[in-house]
Design a protein that fits this description.
It contains ten helices and 16 strands. The protein is an alpha/beta fold. The mean pLDDT is about 95.
Length: about 375
């Protein structure tokens, strides 16, 4: 299956981990369909780990947890599809999944057949309890073969956490997206570390195979103890969430929401539905951004004579750098060439103006500024 743009959707893991069930998934499908998420492009609803029984049946087949999903997974998939959404599920290339449920190692073809019969459109394929003697290049190729043999188009999301230099071989092994990072947690440092780790890997993504820098934590509530469901973290400020979402959009990562859509703030919802940022993420040319001179300035070529310009301030508020700056020399607009940049604030949609030689903006710490840009002839 050729995936034309980075997939967008929702995944159960970050907020709910093991605490998933049929009712939650159906409620989430209703919200995605009725509250603007599907219209904005979030089309995949993905159930992560902990959906199955602890053992396969007597014939070696996967079985949905009878308490969590009493009607079975096809019933859930059919409901999701009835809302105009696409349905995703989870497995692992090891003996067990990360939470200790049956993995797909040695069962790739029968599991792919099961997913196809259920009506799966997207498979997240994790990397826990892997047989050490078998490299990921083999385990992911095996499932790629099995999914194609299943007779159903299924997006193949390889989640191997960036190990074994996955960015160098994922496309050649039949994956549609590849996790190039460890797990994200719900705090700024985790998100920032992931962003920093990708700056030398952005050029490996492109149409048909995307660099997945993990799921979004925008809109998630803080969780700082080990009890209950959900990933750890004391949460992020509104500015930090802007940085997080805008960076994911800038680098063309898949956008998989991870919050509880039944209980999300107006600010977080507005951010995740921002049409300008999503347009940058979903640009058909799928070109990576590059660092444009100044440490925190990033520039990306888009289609239709458009460009994206972002400034991301890693420092604490009030820390260095106080002003973000871009000399247009760094993007090929030399002085006196007769052209400048027309900038539109991507967050607000407001026209900022036309600039000839450079652009400066004050960005608060742990925040960002994002612009859509056009090259225009100066009068």
């Amino acid at each position: 299956m050729f995936v034309k743009k980075p997939p967008m959707g929702w995944n159960s893991w970050n907020t709910f981990t093991h605490a998933i069930n049929e009712e939650l998934i159906m409620q989430t499908a209703d919200i995605m369909a009725n509250e603007g998420y599907l219209e904005a492009g979030y089309e995949y609803l993905v159930i992560d780990d902990c959906w199955s029984e602890r053992e396969r049946d007597k014939n070696g087949n996967l079985v949905a947890d009878h308490e969590k999903f009493p009607h079975g997974m096809k019933y859930v998939a059919d409901y999701v599809h009835s809302k105009g959404l696409k349905f995703g599920m989870y497995s692992c290339d090891g003996i067990l999944t990360c939470a200790g449920y049956p993995g797909s190692f040695g069962h790739e073809f029968e599991d792919a057949k099961y997913f196809a019969e259920v009506g799966v459109d997207y498979l997240k394929y994790d990397n826990c309890y892997k047989v050490a003697s078998v490299p990921n290049t083999t385990t992911y190729q095996k499932m790629a073969l099995a999914l194609k043999a299943s007779g159903r188009d299924i997006v193949f999301s390889a989640c191997n956490w960036g190990t074994e230099d996955v960015h160098t071989w994922a496309r050649s092994r039949g994956t549609d997206l590849f996790r190039s990072t460890g797990d994200i947690f719900n705090h700024f440092e985790s998100m920032q570390n992931i962003a920093d780790s990708q700056k030398d890997k952005l050029a490996f993504a492109g149409p048909g195979c995307y660099n997945d820098v993990d799921m979004l934590v925008v809109g998630m509530k803080p969780k700082t103890d080990e009890s209950g469901a959900g990933v750890q973290g004391d949460g992020m400020t509104e500015g930090e969430q802007r940085y997080h979402f805008a960076w994911w959009c800038m680098v063309g990562s898949p956008l998989m929401m991870g919050c509880d859509l039944r209980d999300v703030s107006d600010e977080a919802k507005k951010l995740m539905l921002n049409k300008n940022l999503i347009r940058i993420n979903q640009d058909i040319e799928c070109r990576p951004p590059y660092m444009a001179g100044h440490k925190n300035a990033w520039f990306r070529n888009l289609s239709n004579n458009e460009y994206a310009l972002g400034f991301f301030n890693d420092a604490e508020d009030g820390g260095w750098p106080p002003v973000s700056y871009l000399s247009f020399n760094e993007i090929g607009l030399t002085p006196n060439c007769g052209y400048g940049l027309e900038l539109t604030d991507a967050f607000t949609g407001e026209k900022v103006g036309v600039f000839e030689h450079d652009f400066k903006v004050k960005v608060p710490g742990h925040d960002c500024a994002m612009y859509l840009a056009k090259v225009v002839k100066l009068s």
